[in-house]
Design brief:
By secondary structure, this protein is an alpha/beta fold. The protein is about 35% helix and about 20% strand.
Length: about 200
Amino acid sequence: MNTSMSSRSYAHMMAVTNRHLCDRDFLEQIEFLASTDIDAIILREKDMTPDEYEHLAKDVLMICHEHHKKCILHSFAEVAAKLNCENIHLPLPVLMELSEKDALEGFKHIGTSVHSVEDALAAEKAGATCLTAGHIFDTDCKKGLPGRGLTFLENVCHRTKLPVYAIGGITPENLEVVRHAGAVGGCMMSLSMKIRE
């Protein structure tokens, strides 16, 4: 039985946060997202200091825990380790650096963003367990930069064994198109900070 407050399905999607795009209390929006059938919430607040991020992450992790929702911390690996969060998303260069130092022990979900087949293969070699590939469609988050398109997504999905989430202009309406291209799902940022149902 779906006990979600949302009447719309967000299955096979991950929300990527950006509190600057949120037009209501940020934690209220997290509470709403956690109540839906979304796969996970990625707490991507890269402009924060580690202390600020840790403070926010504690609240978000608590909300996600209450709703049995997967929370993935972003960039701040030391904060994630300190908070016993097994899920991390790292920029590819950081992932590769930490991999070389054997500093990824303790993480079960290790995500990274890729922008080419070569990136995907490097991420796989460095120990990633999940990829976000993009940006697929034109999006306000990347104004002036054309999307890489579905052929790019297909190439990445066919060359890696890892699950791939598409990012960039992804909505529930075009989700099936990216899944048909080989992605397990999609990520949404702007939309996830605005949706109410």
